[in-house]
Amino acid sequence: LIRALAGLALALIGLVPLGWGVLLLTGTRIRLGLGVFTGMAAAMILLPPFVYFGLSPTVPLVLALGAVVFMLGLAFRRPAPLGGGRVELLPLLVLAAPLVLLAARAVRQPVDRYDAFANWTLKAKLLYFDRDFLQASIAPPVHREYPLGLPALEAYFLHCMGSADVRALHVLFVVFLAGLALVAWIVLRPHVDTWPLTAGLSLVLWMPAVRDQALSGYADVPLACLFVSAVLLLADERIALAAVFAAAALATKRDALAFCAALYAVALVGAVVRRERVRPLLLSVCFLVASVLPWRVFVELRGLHETDVSPSLSHANELPYTLGQLAHTLVQREYLWVVPIATVAALVVLVRGRDLRLALGALALGLGLLAALAFVYTSSTSGIHYLVRSTVERTLITPTLLAAVLLPLLVTRALAVPPEPGPPGAEPPRDRGRTRWRARRRQPA
Amino acid sequence: VKRSLAAAAILVVPVALTIHSTVRGDVDAIRAHSKLTSVQANVAPPFAFPGYGNVPLLLGIRRHVPADASIGFVSREPASIYLRTGWIRWLAFAVAPRLVVNDPHARWVVYARRQPPATVEHAWRFGDDRLVER
Predict the structure, then answer these.
(1) Of A214, A282, A397, B74, which is most buried with the most CB atoms under 10 A?
(2) Interchain contact, B33 vs A109, CB within 8 Å
(3) Cβ contact (<8 Å) for B96 and A122?
(4) Are A417 and A357 in contact (CB under 8 A)?
């Protein structure tokens, strides 16, 4: 066990050069924790193409990639904002408590969920042993057409641990949650006071549904953590780094296709309305398309045809059932009611006419994610009722985590005192709110 | 400051309502996981597959079949059904890195509730199933 934990720690350290290289290339201030999480995201994008060419995701490969990307980062670094993030010890301890407890549960968690042993963890195990399973076949593992970002990253961790200890591997999923909390802290701290933010992130980390799903070995929690990180970074106008996390989400699971489509549609509409940042956003979309090309080409070349989802409106009559199941699940205790609370808070902000961009963006993206899920479900070629019932608890993790992460910002803005009317010619209140958001954003986080 | 504390209080309520059962569930799970033997955690299926299940077969495959080998199956059901059962998916995980393949003529074959031909080189019996090396 100690060897496995030491291997996990070494694996995380081994990802730092890769992460720091990406941070340099995207003009982001270098931090250790963010470097590790960014390294994980970058590895999930870069490792699968090597797997397609028959290379196992070994430690030397990851270190070599890290060296190359770090050198590129030093050569082509973009200016990063100065200033340092002060460590706030008490909030750090409060947020570490749920993670430490979850890690203690994860470290001896057996692989006991169907899709974990039939799909995700089996692929990781086979990649670790360098066994080729990438031909179309009816034999396990199932869903060979899925992207390999998560199994490739897991295989790298197994290499660092020196054995196929798939039980201790569950700790990796706790790291994803920690990474999301870190990104949320970095992005939101300039806009939200310490204790509301700590309480909001505690909501994320203590949420029973997230904790259970994190240790399932499925890709839904990693997908949610990467995608929500991309949302936060995009909202903070760190467009390049957001694209890296969105591409990592795409390398994790096919659901990310629908989620990223919703995210970038909302972002592009906002950018067009404000007439700013359209070009960088379009470049991001091009980057995302380029990042999925190796996977799509590989799927086509190997004949790994997908038959379980076929976009169509032929099952539109199942929409009420699907939406009903989504709504029913979102108000369950395991999800801590975060989506209803976030919706109410966003509506209050909207009605009060302040921070329209925040409220409209949150509502539009939330609805977009649910619409994307509903579309995917009604496009299923198998039994829709069974599919919805058996998967809705985990596919809803992404919208739930998004709502939970935005809650501190939404609730503090909903409770904020409306600004007094200014003298004639002064900015209207909502614009002042927006200006304050931007002005504070440019402060060092 | 008051509004900040009010916001924090609103956000803490859902956690306060559930944290007791969440912590208890985690502690119970930690206790349960620590009691599992290696076979229980890595070889025994996590839930029953009605009509299937043969843990001694899994242990036999892990003992006799080389790690870089592939294993075919001959069963009463057609391969297109048998290789898609939950049991075979668990088996593939438990015996990995040995690959389960759709090839009844592989060097290593499991005859599931079937008699192997008399000409095989080695055969091991595990309940109703036989592991055969050609």
Answers:
(1) A214
(2) yes
(3) yes
(4) no
For residue A222, what is the enclosing H or E element?
helix A220-235
Q: Assess B48–A contact: CB distance below 8 Å, yes or no.
A: no
Cβ partners under 8 Å of residue A129, min gap 6: A164, B67, B96, B97
Tell me which H or E stretch contains B133: strand B129-133
Contact B18, A336 (CB under 8 A): yes
Q: Do B29 and A105 touch (CB under 8 A)?
A: yes
For residue range A332-345, list pLDDT tens digits in order: 999 999 999 999 99
Residue of B14, B19, B101 lying closest to A139 (CB–CB): B101
pTM over 0.80: yes
| CB of A149 closer than 8 Å to CB of A248 | yes
> To the nearest whole angstrom, how far is the Cα of B133 from the nearest Cα of chain A?
20
Which helix (H) or strand (E) is B132 found in, with range?
strand B129-133
**Model confidence over B58-103: pLDDT tens digits?**
999 999 999 999 999 999 888 889 898 999 999 999 999 999 999 9
DSSP state of A119: I
Concatenating the DSSP letter of every residue in A11-46 gives HHHHTHHHHHHHHHHTT----HHHHHHHHHHHHHHH
CA neighbor of A412 nearest in space, from A91, A188, A88: A188
Which residues on A lie below 8 Å from B90 (Cβ)? 117-118
The secondary structure element, H or E, covering residue B129 is strand B129-133
ipTM of the complex: 0.94
* pLDDT digits 0-9 by tens, B27-43: 999 999 999 999 999 99
CB contact under 8 A, A140 and B4: no
